[in-house]
Write a structure and sequence with these properties.
The complex is a heterodimer of chains A (about 260) and B (about 270). Chain A is mainly beta and about 260 residues long. Chain A is built from 3 helices and 22 strands. Chain B is an alpha+beta fold. In chain B, a hairpin with a 2-residue loop joins strand 7 and strand 8. The model of chain B has no long low-confidence stretch (mean pLDDT about 90). Classes of the chains: A mainly beta (about 260), B alpha+beta (about 270).
Chain lengths: ~260, ~270
């Protein structure tokens, strides 16, 4: 469960778990998080929590609410966000660890009864009625600590740990920059930087190939035309082929060279 | 105009790089103008039972009950109305069959599936969808998402609670608000659209659109549209390169020629000389 850490001048005052759908912050005692300081408005801000996501909304406070130093009206809280309310700070710690967690891509589940949309934060009237009402009700209220599994119709998600071992790193490894230099024809000498994941080369309608940038390097594949491109002097097939540094390509009668930038 | 000639259909489905099973299922009947994509969920391996039942039952059901010859004497609204009724009936029948199978077999308890069905006829497409599998349309160089997900996240976007940009960071991506086979009855969203020559339709499971931004989908479709097979492969590969965290399914339908039921005089003359 996500939580907030309340501190002032670097001293931690308390830790608050976001158990409720709506957690209010303000100077008056009825707030869930009371901050007794004159710089804080009576009803200063509210945090709306919907399953695993939390949002903060400033309730037109006199001195405003800052997130990471910027004034906000409404903000989708991310892990480690720091909320400033007067001299007090609230650090938001999401449930998920800093890196993209496997939870993000948890198997698709069906919500039997969606949580009610808090109308206070909805800038548009909640037009969600018909499409939501056709589901059954056996979902526990959000405040329930068991909410993580209560809305799943599947008895239990299939075991993930065994399949996660070979999970690819979410951060794609950086691919070295590369370019193609035209060696012959009217555009001879021109260089084309391969900055996109897909770059087409050749003449549309005559002969076209695509150079794809992938985590493992650059590849060339035939796209259209009766004849295939020539790679390093050899006629290509329909399959993608890896481009090695200084590979030569012949397409639509034009010679080019692929190279990695120094 | 035979639909076989008017529509070019390719599909690709891949387990991705994380999941052991492929719970997605795709099926097409080119001669009938039918394509179906389903992304199953729930139970241990039961997701693929649900998605497999959905695609095969709906494709077979439409084969048995649908013929574009029936449209010959119908006007536009009667024709699209008939298509709507036929598609809805098959979606309901599949829903009932999956629901009952889930009740009978404890291994399948709680199974369900998302669904996108497209039925092409007479320069129209009737689209039924349930859950977060999508239909996009590429017309000219513009890519448009035709279906709107039945998901918690989409509800939040509609309520103004979260912006589309923030939605990509959400932890609630995997929650759908409707699915086929989880209740005795289902409410499919069904609409009909005009089809133009040159359109490309893309059906996909969330394993594609969660990994690839719409910009990249569009760029890929523009760059590679002359080679539909390669486009499908490239999209699956790009989703895998981005992590491949879920099963990835892609169906592409390119409208090579228009396919009116009532041939114009000129078209009839032309067809004699083919």
């Amino acid at each position: 469960m996500a939580k907030l850490i309340l501190s002032v001048d670097g001293t931690v005052l308390k830790e608050i778990s976001l158990m409720k759908e709506r957690t209010t912050i303000g100077r008056k005692p009825h707030n869930d998080i009371q901050v007794d300081n004159l710089a804080v408005s009576g009803e200063h801000a509210a945090i709306i929590t919907i399953l695993n996501d939390s949002f903060i909304e400033d309730l037109n406070s006199t001195n405003g609410t800052l997130v990471n130093g910027k004034p906000i009206k409404k903000h989708f809280l991310q892990n480690n966000d720091v909320i400033d309310i007067g001299k007090h700070k609230l650090k938001y710690l999401g449930e998920a660890p800093v890196q993209v967690s496997t939870q993000d891509f948890e198997k698709t589940m069906i919500i039997r009864k969606p949580p009610t949309m808090p109308a206070a934060v909805a800038s548009a009237p909640a037009s969600s009625g018909p499409s939501m009402s056709d589901t059954q009700t056996n979902m526990r209220p959000l405040a329930s600590p068991a909410h993580a599994s209560a809305h799943a119709t599947s008895p239990a998600p299939a075991p993930q740990s065994s399949t996660m071992s070979h999970a690819p790193n979410a951060a794609t490894p950086h691919v070295r920059e590369a370019a193609i230099q035209v060696l012959s024809g009217a555009a001879a000498g021109r260089t084309l930087d391969l900055v996109k994941n897909l770059t087409t080369i050749g003449k549309p309608g005559v002969q076209v190939a695509v150079v794809t940038r992938r985590p493992s390097g650059f590849f060339i594949t035939h796209v259209e035309g009766a004849t295939f491109p020539i790679l390093n002097g050899v006629l290509m097939g329909a399959q993608a082929q890896a481009l090695t540094d200084h590979a030569t390509i012949e397409i639509a009668g034009v010679k080019m060279e692929f190279f990695y930038k120094p | 105009m035979a639909l076989n000639d008017a529509l070019q259909i390719v599909s690709a489905t891949d387990p991705g790089r994380v999941r052991a099973h492929n719970e997605d299922c795709v099926e097409s009947r080119p001669e009938l103008g039918v394509v179906v994509l389903a992304d199953g969920m729930g139970g241990y391996n039961a997701g693929e039972v649900a998605s497999g039942m959905a695609t095969s039952l709906i494709a077979a059901g439409l084969s048995a009950t649908w013929t574009s010859a029936a449209l010959k004497n119908l006007d536009r609204s009667a024709a699209t109305g008939l298509a709507h009724t036929r598609v809805e009936a098959q979606v309901s029948a599949a829903n009932r069959a999956i629901f009952e199978a889930a009740q009978r077999d404890p291994h399948c308890a709680g199974m369900g599936t998302t669904l996108v069905v497209c039925l092409f006829y007479d320069n129209f497409v009737t689209v039924a969808h349930i859950g977060d599998s999508r239909l996009y349309r590429m017309r000219g160089d513009a890519l448009e998402q035709i279906t709107r997900d039945h998901s918690l996240l989409q509800e939040q976007i509609d309520a103004g609670l979260i912006s589309k940009e923030d939605a990509r960071q959400s932890h609630n991506k995997n929650l759908v608000t409707r699915a086929l086979g989880i209740d005795p009855d289902v409410d499919a969203e069904i609409h009909t659209y005009d089809v133009l020559e040159g359109d490309i339709y893309l059906l996909c499971s969330d394993g594609l659109n969660d990994m690839i931004e719409d910009d990249e989908l569009q760029m890929t479709l523009i760059a590679l549209r002359s080679n539909l097979e390669l486009t499908a492969q490239q999209l699956v590969q790009a989703a895998n390169d981005a992590g491949g965290r879920d099963n990835i399914s892609v169906m592409l339908i390119k409208v090579v020629q228009s396919f009116p039921v009532h041939l114009s005089l000129w078209a009839r003359v032309k067809s004699w000389f083919r």
